[in-house]
Amino acid sequence: DSVMEAAAEITLAVSTTPPNADLFLDGVYAGKTPASLKNLEIGQGYVLGFERDGYDIKEVNIMAEADMAPMVVRLEPLGGIVRVDTTPPGVEIFVDGDSQGVTPLTIMGLERDLTHEVEARYLEQEAQSKTVSWADGDERMLEIGFEFEVEEEEEAVAAASEAVTRPRRQRSRRRAAPAARPQETAPSTSESAAVGGLDPFAVAQEMEQGRLNVRVNSDQARIYVDGNMVKDGTVLLGHTLDEGTYEVRVYFPKLKRHSDTRAVTVRAGETSTVRIAP
Questions:
Q1: pLDDT tens, 177-195?
Q2: Starting at the edge strand that comes first in sequence, how are the strands of the sheet with 45-51 ordered?
Q3: CA 140, CA 81: separation in Å to the nearest integer?
Q4: From residue 66, how far is each of 9, 15, 35, 95, 269 by CA, in Å?
Q5: Nearest to 165 by CA among 201, 210, 133
Q6: Model-wide pTM > 0.90
Q7: Would residue 101 be called left, alpha or beta, if left means φ above 0 and alpha means ψ between -120 and 50 degrees?
């Protein structure tokens, strides 16, 4: 009986590229890679988890089989982040030819081993562009800026809009709805004119939320935010959310599996963009 029991279990060698990742077996820490997982029952399914600073968390489902070859798992570097600010704000930004939204803007999920072209387009003025790339040891987030000529009237509108939205308070993404505004506090005609005909209160309310863009490199996808499906498609643009951090995940119908979960921070008055691939 003891011989049969021994034959029903295997030891699996597991390593990662790069090495020295935290290894988890069914959610339980099992050491640093490379490692040997002992006493795996043949015919039993397991979930192997891998975590390493600077790399995406990865999970691999396996079925223990006799004579399994050593497993080598490649970890993917965390996508690069580019924060774009412009003078004035509200400038449309393109990355590698794809629109990402308007500034101020945080673009996430860029491949760090590639060079990307960031282009800014504002009204009829000549477009401006800059290239971004990452070298070994660079910070994950890069910050760039563009400056365009602004007419005096546009400067006044921008200043008034900024005035009604500052100071920005730290907000939870799950908060009670703001109380109704009494009629007697309605802005005067001069106040409305100061922000280009917009109600400053309405502008402030809108600026309390941010927007999320999700672009999926696939021909079919379902996009989930905090476990709720928000788009049956490969592109989600301008999804309004309260300020906070959200979990974004994509299901690929053809592959019948989910992507890794991405934590995306949404800031009030800004647009965050994330790209996800299978």
A1: 344 444 444 444 444 344 4
A2: 28-32, 22-25, 45-51, 58-63
A3: 6
A4: 8, 19, 18, 48, 56
A5: 201
A6: no
A7: left
